[in-house]
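A favour, since you know our structure tokens better than I do. Could you add the entry underneath, on a fresh line?
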Amino acid sequence: MQRAFILLACLLDCPALGASADTAPARDRARTYLMLRVVDALDLSDDKALQMRDILHRADDRRLELTKKRDALDAEMRATLARSPVDASKLGPLVADSHQVQRDLAALPEKTFAEAQAILSVEQQAKLLLFRRDLQGEVRQAIRRRPTTTTTHHPK
């Protein structure tokens, strides 16, 4: 337990996790919580924990970047599709760019795991895979428990 508090103090003291103008405090708390869960699940040393924090931080930053890009491309595609007649010469590159961004998002977990493999023992790699699966299940359950608002999307 004392080790967890020391690690938490270290994580909160590191400028890389400090709140910046473009990082919400809620995101920092989520990153810190995830890091503590990873450290506990993989039984990481302090050195490995800091390396893993950097890997997860980069992955989250990349995911945010790609998500913003995807959202901008989606908006642009919707606007292009809303015009009549549809400009296929403008839509084609948007489709290609959007597909590439979606591929990059899908590849992110694999790239993150490959980075983690470089610093983790085989036992820790196995624990990470199991932890990731368990965490996905927890997220799905949390989403199911959330109250939902009914919104109907009508495509044009």
Q: What stands out?
A: The helical segments are 2-13, 25-42, 46-82, 88-117, 122-145.
